Amino acid sequence: MKRGNEPVNRLARRLWLALLLALPLQALLVHAQQAPVEVVIGLTDDPPSGDPHKSRGANGGHLLYNVYEGLVALNGEMTEVLPKLATSWEQVDEFSWRFHLREGVTFHNGEPFNAEAVKYSIARLLDPNAVRLNSGYKHISEVEIVDDHTVVIHLSTTDPMFIERLPDVHMVPPVYTASVSEEEFGRNPVGTGPYRFVDWTVGDHLTLEAYDGYWGTKPVVDRLVFRPIPEVSTRLAELQTGRVDFITGVNYDTVSVIENDPSLRVESNSGRRTVFVHVDQLGGFAPLQDARVRQAVSHAIDRQLLIDGVLNGYGTPLATFFRPDMFGFDADLPAQAYDPDLSRSLLAEAGYPDGFTVRMSTSPTTVTKGDEIAQAIASMLGEVGIKVDLQVVSDQTQRDTYLGNPDKTSGAVPPLFMWNWGSQLPDASSPLTGLLRTGGVTSYMSNPELDALIDRFVAEMNPETRRAQAIELQQFLYTDLPVIPLYLQLDLYGVNERIGWTARKDEYILGVDMSLR
Amino acid sequence: MLSYSARRIAQAVLVVFAVTTFAFVILRAVGDPARLLVSPEGTMEDLQSLRRVLGLDVPLWQQYVRFIGHSFVGDFGSSFIHGTDAFKLVISRLPATLLLSGAALLIGVPFGMLMGVVAAVNRKKALDQIATFLAVIGRATPHFWLAIMLIMVFSVQLRLLPPSGYGSFAHLIMPAVSLGAGLAATIARLTRSCMLDVLSQDYVRTARAKGLGQDRVVLGHALRNALIPVVTVVGLQLGYLLGGAIITETVFAWPGIGRLLISAINNYDYPIVQSAIIVIASAFVLINVAVDLVYALIDPRVRYD
Known about the structure:
The complex is a heterodimer. By secondary structure, chain A is an alpha+beta fold.
């Protein structure tokens, strides 16, 4: 080879090399355009089951609300009812509602969605001989099929929040559901939602894929993979290394790690769970039966300090357990004020100038950081002379002790305990009946006048009357303090910047809410 | 030997039965699963009807009779939480646990024995001190901390290994190392002390006196005799490992029995806890029988006639 040819040869070689390199690169680019968009989500645990009539909790909801739909849905802030499998509805009379069903909808297995499916799904939810989460639906007395796409649902009591309850009543395909065992159904869920179930290895991963035959707008994300990663620092490591795009249950202490990583961001919702100190008024502990003492407890607590000091600023102080999205929320009531002097004078007025000693129970997880919050509260109460004997137990023990306690008058339980309520409805009827009404599973008081007011509120169909009742109830909660409200607990998520998403109040992660940036 | 084995297996069945009964009673004394399942806005009647559906409304002895009756036909109940066959769910987690236990043993036993032998042979020299130091560190380091540190270094900083999950060799490395490290430390210390004991025996001196090389003395005469307690401890450790390395499995999101068990205990999911206890107790007892039988192989003084 002559020397003079060398530059030409070099050029030729370079061209070849460039071509060789470009080919696979181009192939890759084409591939990238066609490759399905996959989002991997790190959860705190497996969803319990794919059976929408018995699964619960946020981890269950991530699966259910992607796969199933109800007749209606709530928007992300839980302030507005949206049509889903029903296109419209109207109230027939005080006890019945007519629903016009969406036509042309099929379940993931091809079964048609129709009036028969609505009747079957509600009957299955109300099955008294199976484990069912149906406490809020026992007043459904009949589902009447008018025609293939019209049903009338009859109730045995009036229910102003009936429509808002329906997002949780997921529709299941009658033929498939009846043909398999409950176990099989829970492992291979079939709904009408935007995502269909693909596979599930419990403890490892759960895959959903966008359903081609979906009636609504197709989601941008083709595939959702949920991975249970129980340890919070491991979840964070997975997010940092880009192997998962999304994590739930972000620790308040590690928020800064995510904030300081330019490829990640923290998302927080507006809080579904209200956190409070519950008071046992039935167990015979005298001081707490006096409303002035409960007020003293409330005014001794610096809520903003709890939020800033323990929760890294994530939280909103509350006046009562009414959330801002709840019907009749009284925005004029300020959060309970921190005023230790007022506390001391209230205690003196009630006959406890030197305070008293009280037992208090908490768990680290019933309320996020429940141990640290309770320790802080104990020290704040100590400032006004109330000596707190704090008992930190597990979440299970806490729930086992207070939930459904058959002997509430025994006085065996610590009279103050940390508790929370995450109502799925934009309405206070569930905490009112569960926490305050005589006989509620976590009610530790008995006030017949209050019971009567709650009963009227729960069944009142006139919005204006009901709004007045809501204000009256909040005034009562604010001054009588049967539970001592603290703050709205916010849920934190770590999200990869490539995904557009805002957190929902109901805590669920839905593929349809995601976009690519 | 045969009659001995038969006797041991009969004992094993009794032990498993006793453990299961104990677990059955204790579980029911601890907590009420219906209270964890009931809807918070539910009523006391809802709670009672849940107990009825779960079969918890009848007296304890009736629940026990029903449980034993069903057990004989291989029905250990359905998980309260997942609604699936509890025993099947436990068995489905067994491969992951076996894989992790096996890998931890493969790391822990050879490393531990090597360190122990090297330390014993070089008693009071630098190598001994280094090995002993490593063993103390290995024992004293909390599993949890080691696991998180491994993730921080090898996943987050160096991006070499996946932080968690299951399914490939890369996923196995960190859990196996974090579990194997503690095991190696235990075995190293035990091997060292057993070796020191054996090395001072008359027959070792005799072996040396008749001119055998150091390797033959250490590996052929001393190590074999020092193995008996080591085999016992390895057997016991394997039993614990099969019970699920709860912390390691949790940190690395490894889908083994330990994680399933801890979540079932937290949810009072009786059928899963019972099934898991049957599996773990059986594994433990079988390993003990196997260890006893291995004694006879490595020590001619042990005979089961």
